[in-house]
Write a structure and sequence with these properties.
This protein has about 350 residues and is α+β, with helices and mostly antiparallel strands. It folds into two domains: about 100 residues, Phosphorylase Kinase, domain 1 (2-Layer Sandwich), CATH 3.30.200.20; about 240 residues, Aminoglycoside phosphotransferase (APH), C-terminal lobe (Aminoglycoside 3'-phosphotransferase, Chain: A, domain 2, Alpha-Beta Complex), CATH 3.90.1200. Helices cover about 45% and strands about 10% of the residues. The longest helix has 28 residues. The structure holds adenosine-5'-diphosphate, 2-acetamido-2-deoxy-1-O-phosphono-alpha-D-glucopyranose and magnesium ion.
C-alpha cells in the first residue's frame, strides 16, 4: 500500500482500518482510488487542481449540489469530512473522500440499450432536480467550458504554438477542425440571445459518470459533479450521445469500428427526453441533434489541442492517446452531420 495515501486518509473521518488502496475507474481528470477498510469502502480522489484551481469553489459547489439532491430524495455522492470538518484536504495536492456507492458499476460502452436509456433518464432527472437549485450560489469551476468558439480559439493557439512539433503528423485532423468553423457558434449565440434557456447542467454526462445498479442495470447516482454549472440541455444531451451512441470505446484505434448508432441514439433520447418533456423548449428540441455533433467535435478538438500541447490536460496511458481519441470523435462527428435528419425524426417521434 502507498504509505503517502494511507497518511492522507488519516486526515479523514473514515471508519475502520485501511487494508487496501488501489487505482480505480477510467476518469481522465482526477486520480481516483478505491479504499477498503475492515469496515467499508471509500473513493479517494486527488483533485486535479490544475484543471480546477479554485478548489474551495469546486467543493462548495459539490457540497451544495449533493445536499440539494439529498433533500430531493436522490441518491448522490456523500462527501466524507476531514477530521477538522472540511470538505477536502488542502495542500499542493488536494484530496477528497466519498463513500463508495456499493452495488453499482460504470460502463465504458452502451452495448445494453435499456441501460443506456436508464442513464438518459437519470441525466434528465438530474436536470429536473437542479431546476430548483439556486444557480447564483454556484462557482463557475471552468469558465467557458462548452463555449465551442472559445475552444476553437484555444485549439488554434495550440496549433500556432505547436509546442512539441506534432502538427505535421495530424494535418488531416487539423484540417477537419478548421473546415467546420461555421458550425461552432450556434449554441453560444442562442444562449446569449436568449433563444436557448440557460439551465444548471452537469456538463460532463458521459456514461461512466453515472453509477448503474449492478443487479438491475437501473441508474443509481449521477457522479463527477465537478462541472455542474450554468449551461444548456444541448451540452448534457450531446455529451451523452457523443460517448454512448457509438459502437466502440472513445480511444478505439481501428476507425472501421467507430459507428454512430441510431439505435443507441433512440434509446438515450427516449430516456432523456421523456424525463425533461415538461420543460424542454421547441428550440432545444430542434437543436438536440446539433448538440450531439457539437459536443463531439468540441471534444475532438480538445483532445487534438492537448495532443499538440504535449498531453498536459487529459490523462494518457499510451502513445498518441489524445490523437487516437480525437480521431474517434471526428469520425463520429462526420457521421452525426450526415444523420441530422434521422436524429431529428427520432426526437420528433418521442416529443412530438
Ligand atoms: P474523473 O473526474 O477523473 O472522471 P470521477 O469522479 O468520474 O473522476 O471518478 C472516476 C470513476 O470512479 C467513475 O467513472 C466511477 O467509475 C468511479 N467512482 C467515482 N466516485 C464513485 C463512488 N462514490 N462510488 C463508486 N464509484 C465511484
Ligand atoms: C473528461 O472527468 P471525465 O473523465 O469524466 C472531461 C470532459 C470530456 C471527457 C472526455 C473536467 O471527463 O469534459 O468530455 O473527459 N472533463 C473535464 O472523455 O475536462
Ligand atoms: Mg468522470
Amino acid at each position: 500500500m502507498d504509505s503517502k495515501l494511507v497518511g492522507v486518509l488519516k486526515n479523514f473521518e473514515i471508519e475502520g482500518k485501511v487494508i487496501d488502496v488501489c487505482r480505480y475507474g477510467e476518469g481522465h481528470i482526477n486520480v481516483t482510488y478505491l479504499v477498503t477498510t475492515d469496515k467499508k469502502r471509500y473513493i479517494l480522489q486527488r483533485i486535479n487542481n490544475t484543471v480546477f484551481p479554485d478548489t474551495d469553489g469546486l467543493m462548495g459547489n459539490i457540497c451544495g449540489v449533493t445536499e440539494h439532491l439529498k433533500r430531493m430524495g436522490a441518491e448522490t455522492l456523500n462527501v466524507i469530512k476531514t477530521k477538522d470538518g472540511k470538505s477536502y484536504l488542502k495542500g499542493a495536492e488536494p484530496y477528497r473522500v466519498y463513500d463508495f456507492i456499493e452495488g453499482t458499476v460504470t460502463y465504458q460502452t452502451a452495448d445494453d440499450t435499456d441501460m443506456f436509456a436508464a442513464s438518459g433518464a437519470a441525466f434528465g432527472e438530474f436536470q429536473n432536480y437542479l431546476a430548483a437549485f439556486d444557480a447564483s450560489s454556484l462557482v463557475e469551476t471552468i469558465p467557458h467550458f462548452h463555449d465551442t468558439p472559445k475552444r476553437f480559439r484555444d485549439f488554434k493557439a495550440a496549433l500556432a504554438a505547436d509546442a512539441c512539433g506534432r502538427a505535421k503528423e495530424c494535418e488531416e485532423e487539423i484540417n477537419y477542425v478548421l473546415s467546420q468553423e461555421d458550425m461552432y457558434s450556434v449554441a453560444m449565440d442562442d444562449l446569449k440571445s436568449g433563444r436557448l434557456p440557460l439551465r444548471v447542467t452537469h456538463n460532463d454526462t458521459k456514461l461512466n459518470n453515472v453509477l448503474m445498479d449492478a443487479v438491475t442495470n437501473k441508474a443509481r447516482a449521477v457522479i463527477d459533479l465537478d462541472t455542474v454549472m450554468p449551461g444548456s440541455t444541448l451540452f448534457d444531451f450531446g455529451d451523452s450521445i457523443r460517448f454512448g451512441a457509438c459502437t466502440c470505446k472513445e480511444d478505439e484505434e481501428d476507425l472501421s469500428k467507430v459507428k454512430f448508432d441510431l439505435v443507441r441514439f433512440r434509446a438515450y433520447a427516449e430516456g432523456y427526453c421523456n424525463a425533461v418533456k415538461d420543460t424542454v423548449t421547441e428550440r432545444e428540441k430542434e437543436l438536440l441533434p446539433y448538440g450531439s455533433y457539437l459536443m463531439t467535435i468540441e471534444c475532438g478538438m480538445r483532445f487534438l489541442a492537448d495532443y499538440l500541447a504535449g498531453d498536459v490536460y487529459f490523462h494518457v496511458s499510451k502513445d498518441k492517446h489524445n490523437l487516437i481519441r480525437s480521431r474517434t470523435q471526428f469520425s463520429l462527428a462526420r457521421q452525426m452531420r450526415e444523420n441530422f435528419g434521422e436524429m431529428g425524426g427520432i426526437i420528433k417521434e418521442i416529443l412530438g
